[in-house]
Amino acid sequence: MRSSEVVAFVYFLVLAAASLVRPVGAARRAQIAAIGIVMAAAVFAIGYRAPAAVRDWAPCVYILVGYFLSGRFFVRPSAAFEAWLAAWDRRVLGDPTRRFERWPRPLLAYLEVVYLGCFLLVPAGFALLAATGRAALADRYWTMLVAAEFGSFAPLAFVQARPPWLVERPPSLPDRGLHDVAAALVSRFTIRANTFPSGHVAGSLAVALALAAAAPAAAALFFALALSIGVACIVGRYHYVVDVVAGAALALAIWAVVSFTHPNV
Known about the structure:
Layout: H1 3-18, H2 26-49, H3 52-71, H4 79-93, H5 105-116, H6 121-131, H7 138-153, H8 164-167, H9 176-189, H10 199-211, H11 216-235, H12 241-261
C-alpha cells in the first residue's frame, strides 16, 4: 500500500478501537466500530486491487468519511478544555464577537466565501498536479493531506469542545447577511463539534505545502488561500485562535516529515 493508504488504514482502525473504550453509548459504539472496520478493509482492498486512477482520488472519500466518523465520538464538551480555548481568544482578541466589526464589508464577504470553499482545495490541489503531468507525486500529496486532516479529526475521540459559534453570541459584523448564510450551512452540514487542531487550516496549508516544490506559482495562490482560511476561521467564529495555530503547526510538522521520506520525483 501507499503510505497515504497506510495512514488512512491505521486511522480507521484506531477509531474503531477507540469506540470500544470511549463513553459513546452502545449504538454509536457499534456504528463507529462497523464503519471503521469497513473503511479500513476498503482502504486495504483499494490499495492492493484498484487501478492507479482510483487510488489517486480515493483519499477524497477517506477524508470525508473520516471527518463525519470522528464526529460520532462527540458526546459532551470538556468544560475545562473549552474554557481554555475561549480564554486564549479573549487574551488575543479581547471581545472576539466585536473584534472585527469595523473590518470592510468586501473583506468579510471574501473571508466567508473562502471559508465555505475550503473543501474544494483538497481535490483542486491534486487535479493541478495531474494536469501538469505530476501525478507521480500522488502518494506524497495525499500522505500530507490525510495525515493533516486525520491528525485534526482524531483528537475529537478523546478531547471535545464546541466551536465558538455554538458558545458565543453571534459576532457583530457590518453586514451579517452572508455570514448568516455561511453559519446556517456550517450548522447543517458539519459535525457541530470543534476539531483541534483546525482541519480547515491544517488541510489548506498542507495543500499549499504539497504543491510548493512541484508547482511554486500555483502554490503561492494556495498559500494565500490558506492564510485567508485561517483568518476566516477566527473572524467568523468557526474556530478558536489556538485551533488555527495548532492546525498550521500540524501541517508544517507533517510537511517536514513527508519531505524527508517522500522527496519530489
